[in-house]
Every structure is written in C-alpha cells, then in structure tokens.
Amino acid sequence: MGKFVKAADIDEVKSGSMKLVETDGREIVLCNVDGTYYAVDNICPHLGAPLCEGDLDGTDLWCPFHGASFDVTSGEVLSPPAYENLTCFPVRTTDSTIEIEVE
Ligand code: FES
Q1: How far is the CA of 26 from the centre of ligand 1 (A)?
Q2: Whole-number Å distance between alpha carbons of 57 and 34
Q3: Is the Cβ atom of 63 under 6 angstroms away from ligand 1?
Q4: pLDDT at residue 24, rounded to an integer
Q5: Is the pLDDT of residue 22 over 90?
C-alpha cells in the first residue's frame, strides 16, 4: 500500500473546483467533479502551465496557456497541443480529510 498524504479538509474543495496540492516536491491538482475527487499532475506536459489555473468543466480540465484538455478521471489528453497524458493519483476520503496516494 502506498503513502497517503492529506490534500484538503473535507468540504474544502467544492464541486466543480480545484486545489493545488504540493507534496514531496510534486505539484498535484485535486479536482471535485460532482462530489467525486480526482488528482492529476498539475504541470501541463505541453509547456508547463499550472493546470490548477485552468478551467474544470465536468471531467475536462483545460490548460490556461494554450487550451489543451485532459480527462481528470484517467489523465488522458483529449485535445492538442499537449500529447502526453497526465499521471493520476488515487484519492480517498476519511471523515475529515481528502487524501492522495503519492507513492
Ligand atoms: S502549456 Fe498547456 S497547452 Fe500549452
């Protein structure tokens, strides 16, 4: 079993919103899609934009720089100019926190 780290307090990340989580020198964006949480790399594989500053539309995360989009449920790239998928991280919730498995 991997190492889970606290990403947020429960209810801190509202439905349709995101939060940047920095842990172990890595930037991860935590997304709330209709009450289900997903976590993916925060850095766009195209030219390094911070995806937490983009737009979350359902399960689609849009890069703020050049408009690439990704599916936060799988990390799959959906539209160019990015061509590499994002790493996804397992998420779990406890009574009071949202946690991400980072290794
Ligand atoms: S940096 Fe994300 S699409 Fe260019």
Answers
A1: 18
A2: 11
A3: yes
A4: 83
A5: yes
Give the distance (Å) from ligand 1 centre to CA of residue 62: 9
CA 27, CA 41: separation in Å to the nearest integer? Answer: 6
By the 10 Å C-beta count (0-12 exposed, 13-18 middle, 19+ buried), 96 is classed as: exposed
**What's the total number of domains in the chain?**
1
- The answer to whether 64 touches 30, Cβ cutoff 8 Å, is no
For 23, 42, 53, 74, 103, the CA distances from 26, given in Å and listed in that order, are: 5, 9, 16, 19, 11
Tell whether pTM > 0.85. Answer: yes
Which CATH number does the domain housing residue 50 bear?
A: 2.102.10.10
Domain that holds residue 13: 4-101
